[in-house]
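As described in the Methods, two query proteins were run sequentially through the folding procedure within a single session, without resetting any intermediate state between them. The first query and its resulting structure tokens are shown here.
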Amino acid sequence: MRILNVTETYAPFLEFGGPPVKVRALSEGLGRRGHQVTVLTADWGLEKKMQTEEGKIAAERSPFGWRREKNGVQAIYLPTWMRYRTVSWNPAVKRYCRARLQNFDAVHIFGLYDLLGPAVAAACRARKLAYVIEPIGMFVPIVRSLWLKRMYHLICGRRLLQGASAVIATSEQEIEELLTGGVPRAKIVLRRNGVEAHESWPERGSFRRAQGISNDEKLVLFLGRLSAKKSPELLLRAFAELSGQFTGKPLRLVFAGPDEGGVKTQLEQLASQLGVRTRVQFTGPIFGEAKWAAYRDADVFVLPSQNENFGNTAAEAIAAGTPVIVTEQCGIAPLLANAAGLVVPHDAKALSEAIAQVLGEAEVHARLAAGCAKVTLQLGWGEPVRDMEALYARVAARQAEKQDSRRLV
């Protein structure tokens, strides 16, 4: 099949978190299965990346922007004329659709609250081409610019979803959110996310050495965007409460990830107020070997989100063999509960008690660490890729039947 994946962010722009990692894994997985996959995305500074990472990134000019071929996937980076946070304006999308859209059998749009998806969806509807949409946890407005997100749904989001042949959810939690929002159950398809286990693990201790953290310290790791949605403040308060209990045992909390809207400064101020500033460390965004080294060196990984459609970072930590703690609001929670980690309410006291249990009870830590390998076997990308392959085939077949019936009429 000829498949078009549409996403606001794609590799090598991994600083945008889980979406570009997910789209890359699905696209390359489908490419390995013999499909022709194209990713249509925004250019967030590819030329600059090519200059700063000389030899690592190669691309060429195309009629629509930069074109990059990697691991069997062609990516088109449309020129960005304006941007606001993670939203871009890419006028070339309409020209691309006029010239290329008819060449595809299936279109998959990832995410909401951007301008690329609605433009491609409108072109699909005009050409009677089926498309599927994956909200990637954005359907329910949670934090930041709530009125803008509501306006988005009124202007184009509702039509975007109504016109889709299928809406993909990655957890039972996300299904409930979609149902509550009025999406018909018959249109919703459940497909979990996966995790790409690292091919060769970094040497243990390398992250600690790079960050000046001794091997005697118990390391609590948060890795992801420092955004209100992911509740790093909740983790900091839980850590402060925990620090008073672990007398004689040095603890360290590491926040690894890009700042969003000045959250880092707020956390630094709160850490000082709580008297734990010297035990809290910020590394900024980390990728590749450094990211996997952080997972490997952590004693526990914590994802305290107030809403998370899946939780890719928790899956990555499990793949690295590190026990995790997630809130009940994380879609991955049922897959790991009491097997590779603990699941707690979105509450500082409950979170603090769970961290104390994992760090303070050796048998609990050992049991959860041993369970990581078993859970990882259930989290590979093979099954999700096959699920998408089957869904695209069904959607394309239904669309062909509709077109045939119109011709007969």
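Immediately afterward, the second query was submitted; its sequence and tokens are:
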Amino acid sequence: MKIKLKHLVVLITLASLGSIIYGLTLEEGHPMAPKYIGGGTVGLFLVAMPLFLYKESKGKNMKDYMLTKENIAKMQEKERKKTENQ
């Protein structure tokens, strides 16, 4: 059984959110409540988010997203064309 990265990210996200919600619903003085909330937060931001970003950025050229002089000129040219067409 091969789990796709997309399904793994969704599973980790749901588990993290479930852990946070469970920690928030525990009684106020319960000693494990902060551990559930913290574990869910760590899972969400240090595990699920980097996996999602890795999955989505695979195969994309990072130079296309950098603010270089060439890319700024392209964006300004597109803006000029939009205003002329309206």
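The mean pLDDT is 88. We note this only descriptively and draw no conclusion about the first query from it.
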